[in-house]
Amino acid sequence: MTSAVLSPEAPAVIARRRPQARAAYLIGAISIGVIAIMGAPIVLSALASVKTAADASAAPPHYLPTALSFENYAKVTRFQAGLATYVGNSALVAAIAIAACLAIAAPAGYGLARFALRGKEVAFLVLLAPIMIPYQAILTPLYLDFAKVGLVNTHLGLAVVHTILQLPFSVFLMRSSFEAIPREIEEAAVIDGCSTWQRLTRVFLPLTIPGLVTVALFAFINSWNEFLAALIFMNQDTSFTVPILLVSVRAGKFGAVDWGALQASVIISIIPCLAVYLVLQRYYISGLLSGAVK
Amino acid sequence: MKRTRPSNQWQGWLYVSPALLFVGVFVLIPLFQLVAMSTTDRSLLGGGRFIGLGNYIKIWNDAGFWRALMFTIKYTIVLTPILMVLGFALALLTADNTPLKRLTRTIVFLPVVIGLSSSSLLWFWLFDEQVGLLNKLMTDLHVIAQPMVWFVSADLAFWAVVISITWKVLGFGMVLFIAGIQSIDREIMEAAVVDGAGYWTRVFRIILPLSRRIILLTTLVSAIGSMLAFDQFYIMTSGGPRGQTFTAVYWIYQNSFVSFKLGYGAALSIVLTVIILVFSTLQIALTARSQAR
Lengths: 294, 293
Hints:
The complex is a heterodimer of chains A (294) and B (293).
Chain A: H1 2-6, H2 9-49, H3 53-56, H4 71-77, H5 83-114, H6 120-127, H7 129-132, H8 135-148, H9 155-179, H10 183-191, H11 196-207, H12 209-225, H13 228-233, H14 242-251, H15 259-279, H16 281-289
Helix pairs in contact in A: 2-15, 4-15, 5-9, 5-12, 9-12, 10-11, 12-15, 12-16, 14-15
Chain B: H1 5-37, H2 54-60, H3 63-94, H4 99-113, H5 116-127, H6 133-140, H7 154-182, H8 186-194, H9 199-210, H10 212-227, H11 231-236, H12 248-258, H13 262-292
């Protein structure tokens, strides 16, 4: 009975549904295609890195390893001064850059957001100057200045350059983080007799942790990946950072490229970025969007 | 309240001062040094005689510089629309929050967080004529008869870099566009559906016009990045063949740190800074306006 009553309706519903279902399948298929194309390079590189050295340099190549081997990784571990030195260099430079960005940008954001300073918009524009002046342009004078005071080939020197790169974004982000805190919270702290410093450290900083994490995250990824300044400032093979190591692995010992070792070092260089991004994805995306939308 | 104000001024500036000091010492002073250096014939070994605008006149007649600048502009003009159109298409594809679309978004965005040096070497390997899997795939699919040698031709090398960078930064535009699409008022979209507007009508009449500002901003950020390209060319083409793929930054690097013509390199840097300034001023103006709203 019910089916008879519904039947006149049913064909119309199906007719309307069918193109939609087809579109959904099409969208699903396109998505899977996109995933395959975008994911393939990293997957293929990872697979090549665990080939045997001979297999990795085979011409024509095989898509999949014929045997599992970690000799490429072993080779990179022993490359020149040793992988540990290069990863250590990159990690130390990134750590100093993160610390500097936080230590400089957090108070600056606090000052700009929470004090009625005369001329603060001018100060803010000055702090955004490194966006307008590409750091690529000032590397020569910086190099000469750093050479005079012995900062070339030091972790601190390169970390300073990476801090320059990251500071405008960090100040911008910290300023909006501090501005987002309701006035009532500050007023309560003032009534309790907190000094401006106590307000910053005890009241505000715990509330701006998402902003601080985002600043640290961007400082890490951009320092870890930065190439040009590292190429110019770190010119001894013991002071190389990971991106420079990659280029020297490619250059090889006798001119012939060691493809297996190259893919192993590519994978080593991207693992920290992927790990940090996948864990802190939410912060990364919100950082990217700050200023762009809203 | 009024009595505490002077001390508040003083304290507020104290918090901002480390940042101002840092930018002053490590950005503004070097900038002045750069300007001064650009008027000298200084090299890494010495020199430093004042030659006025000599370097700038030399730039005007430097065919290598103009070729590098034109190449950089060509790279920017070709790459930016590809990134914007594909990024927007991917944003349309993945803007809803279903699990498959979230996964697609994450995978498309992954290359954005890895280093340019890593991605360039990854693609350098994929493009290789002997061991490269891209050549292997294209021959297996009968797209090409035999492996192509990508880096002996300036045109092929150019496209190899464009392909690798598209893969590397596509997710950046996509994420910004998704945010733009998701911020559009649901009621507007529902009203359009009720009015019988089809999918593409909604895309072209509602989504695109309402995303105009974010599209412009993303285009600017992307174009600035392309105008400053260096890593990908240094690694994949080394400027070759025959210096046909030098970019503006690469030309500065060559002059300053390979030929050690520091004065001349400084003048080139100033010219590039002025070009970038036009783009970045627009970018900051747009960002500031969105903050004010």
